[in-house]
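QA checklist item 7 of 12: single-chain prediction sanity check.
[x] sequence parsed
[x] length recorded as 242
[x] structure emitted
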Amino acid sequence: MSRLHKPKAGFWIRLCVVILYPLDGLLFRIRWRHLDRVPAPGTGGVIIAVNHISQVDTVLMARFVWQSGRVPRFMIKAGVFGWPIVGRIMHGAGQIPVYRGTTDASKSLRDAVTALEQGEAIVIYPEGTTTKDPDNWPMQAKTGIARLVLLSPDTPVVPVGQWGAHRMGFSHKRLGRRRISLASVGEPLDLSRFRGKEPTAETLREITDEIMSAVRSEVADLRGEPAPAEFFVPARKYVDKK
């Protein structure tokens, strides 16, 4: 389902909608649950936390957020903004570049806080990259989302689990076969109890794991199987160059 409200947006966002809607429909059969749990437009800023399973799932999540009645502002790795055409669209659409593992990451957080104060919807993949878990469960996330929560503690965090986009592949045998894309929205998390907390390693990990546990629960519901007890910890650290 989707809300009847259609978000107000500028040229670049509208261009994305024109491009992504038919593309999503061509590649996937979409099944989304509890879209109404995303706070309605006009109720203030919201942080939407999503697991990352495929390089193509961003186009699905963009449509997902749009159909909830919100204009998505993704926090996206900075390298994408250097791509021909796509980078120009990302800039024009007001998406937020993230330099992972660098001092510029703090600017990304400031930009995100400003957007939240203006009542916008910030979409973030807490894992920072597609999951490296062998079974595609959400892996241990970076603590950037926790830092954002501490900077905007009264903003609700909406956990979203998705499944299916990683199964898309390109071959002559799959032409005309659409994969099912599933997404489920959890109840918004109230993390205001962390207001005023110092960003210690323990606090950042506690916030991050609470959010990702909620995301993982939605993924488990979609998969119809119990989630692993522990998060997979990737060996590699990801850093973006300026």
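[x] summary fact logged: Residues 2 and 124 are 21 Å apart (CA to CA).
[ ] second reviewer sign-off
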